[in-house]
Design a protein that fits this description.
10 strands, 8-stranded antiparallel sheet, binds iron/sulfur cluster, alpha+beta, NADH Oxidase, single chain, two-stranded antiparallel sheet, about 30% helix
Length: about 230
């Protein structure tokens, strides 16, 4: 039986203006047809969208240079280990755009509409993560926080999610996110990871050399790479 204190956030309000979606679509040019598609989709999405998140407030129990132990699970990552100190407050989490948006069916031929819905789902997931960050920061009076996700760096690969999910018990029952044996999350627009306090903001992108990544949140730094993995 799981006795950890599991917090579920399922009252996350989500609202979007067409301009926000169009900006995030990063189109070279918008036009009235695209704007009409976005408006039409938002009319379908907003009444049913239900982004959610689940987290636990925990501590680092043990660590060495290559791994950290949290709630009896051993996570293997040099970068995670460098970011966490013994007895540091940590918040393992799973967040999602919500399975309600998976029910919206669009013809696979309609590439533009499919892309637009994908962007809306990403924005719903972003809203869930922002609310989660705001909640733990306020509730536990934290200063600067950062987070890491299995799969964002080769140093902490995707299969590490198989250790993260059991910390919450049945995540599918709690917030509708299913983890496959190949470590894919469904809905696809879901995210799992660990929030932690940090003196300065940490982003995995600082250690990731991938060029032209549309999701990049921080500049790649060879000094940071040397500091963490040198
Ligand atoms: S640069 Fe892109 S691929 Fe690399 S960690 Fe950041 S978001 Fe992920």
């Amino acid at each position: 039986m799981n006795t950890r204190e599991i917090e579920i956030l399922d009252d996350i309000s989500f609202n979007l203006k067409p301009e926000q979606v169009i900006t995030r679509m990063r189109l070279r040019h918008s036009n009235p047809q695209i704007e009409a598609i976005v408006r039409e989709l938002l009319e379908q999405v907003l009444p049913v969208a239900h982004p959610k998140a689940v987290y636990i407030a925990s501590w680092v129990d043990n660590k060495d240079s290559f791994s950290v132990d949290i709630e009896g699970a051993r996570f293997t990552s040099r970068v995670l280990s460098k970011n966490l100190t013994m007895f540091k407050r940590v918040f393992p989490y799973v967040a999602t755009c919500g399975c309600e948006l998976e029910e919206i069916r669009i013809s696979s031929q309609d590439m533009l509409k499919t892309y637009c819905l994908d962007v809306i789902k990403m924005l719903a997931l972003g809203t869930a993560i922002a609310r989660l960050s705001e909640t733990v920061t306020k509730k536990y009076t934290l200063g600067q926080t950062s987070h890491m996700n299995p799969g964002s760096l080769a140093d902490w690969p995707l299969p590490e999610q198989q250790k993260l999910f059991p910390l919450f018990g049945d995540v599918e029952k709690l917030i509708g996110v299913r983890l496959s044996t190949s470590s894919m999350m469904y809905p696809l627009k879901s995210s799992s990871g660990i929030f932690f306090t940090s003196d300065t903001r940490f982003e995995s992108c600082q250690l990731c050399p991938r060029e032209n990544c549309p999701g990049r949140r921080a500049t790649y730094s060879t000094e940071m790479l040397e500091k963490y993995l040198g």
